Amino acid sequence: MGWVRARILDPILGLLRHGLSPEGLAWSLAVGFALGVIPLLGASTVLCVGVALAFRLNQPAIQLANYLAYPLQILLLFPFIRMGEGLFGTHHETISLAHIQAALRADAWGAIRMFWTSLWHASVAWLLVVPIPMILLAWGLRPIFRRALKSFRRP
What we know:
The protein has helices at 2-17, 22-36, 44-55, 59-68, 70-88, 97-106, 108-129, 131-153. The protein has one domain (2-153). The chain contains 8 helices and no strands. The protein is an all-alpha fold.
């Protein structure tokens, strides 16, 4: 629990203490988490920077959520690929994480070309799935952060 408190809870609460609104923090974390599970490995950090700048979200909060989502990104990669295959009616590719890693190590651009169609279809599936959980997460975090902010203001 000490690691979670020091690495996750304290930085989040520190953002509230330093003036970030509960709504801004909730949206930053929710969007960071949503972008963190995109099935384009290696793209989420850059996407988080761009989205945070475009929508004036908090950069540290969005990146924290992005990094916390990484295990879920790996876990959801293949379900998004399969969903994308179903959406586009393409054949079932035999892809494994080891296969992707080996291809990336051998030739990153070649790997991107090899898996482009699968990852593009998976990204469309992600785009269809992620908005509702992202909105629900933001709405769920807002009252928690409002209560936390009120507790800081008490004498």
